[in-house]
Amino acid sequence: MYLVECKPDATLVKSLTRTSRKNIEHAGNKSELLKKLAERYGNSKGIIDEDPWSIQPPHLQKFKEKQDLTRYNLKILRQTRKNNILIMLRPRLEDWILEAAREASIDVKKYNLPNDPVKLHEQINIQIGNFQKLVEDLAKSNRFRELKKHLTTDI
Question: What are the angstrom distances between the C-alpha of 11 and each of 8, 56, 94, 131?
Fold first, then answer.
């Protein structure tokens, strides 16, 4: 099972894992995702934004750092008790995607998406089809391959 904060996260997970929508639960927000992952689910994976400028939910303390992949702006955390993995995009999904596009020399404007993370955050749900096309085109980038590896390997 995959737990995600929002629709763009679900699009990212679905595109990289090719799992069905029934294996992806939309938790609604970071706090709810962490609570569900920490208390309800086992052998599952969650994907969240780091959100370094925000107060962190208390359930995050139940996860211990497993790997800091600074090169890819990813952090992998583990909750041993329930055998769950938490993948943290740093600092936020929008920044992470835009950096991946820059690294792959892909212009997001080609997808009618803004190249500013704040504006992308505002438009991403409205332009979800365009976002999905961008994600598919970025799938072979190093950053996406690293994320895919952590999404698809056994826990």
Answer: 5, 24, 13, 8
pLDDT of residue 154: 83
3-state secondary structure of 67: strand
Average pLDDT over residues 48-63: 96
Contact 85, 147 (CB under 8 A): no
The order of strands in the sheet holding 84-89 is 24-26, 2-4, 45-49, 84-89, 74-79, 64-69
Enter the pTM of the model.
Answer: 0.95
| Coil, strand or helix at 19 | coil
Cis peptide before 57 (omega within 30 of 0): no
Distance between CA atoms of residues 78 and 117, nearest Å: 28
Under 8 Å between Cβ of 106 and 144: no
The C-alpha angle 88, 90, 92, rounded to 5 degrees, equals 95
Look at residue 155 and tell me whether its pLDDT is greater than 80.
no
Where does the pLDDT of residue 81 fall: very low under 50, low under 70, confident under 90, or very high at 90 and above? very high
CA–CA separation, 114 and 47 (whole Å):
23
Q: Which amino acid is at 120?
A: L
For residue 135, the 8-state DSSP code is: H
- H/E run at residue 89: strand 84-89
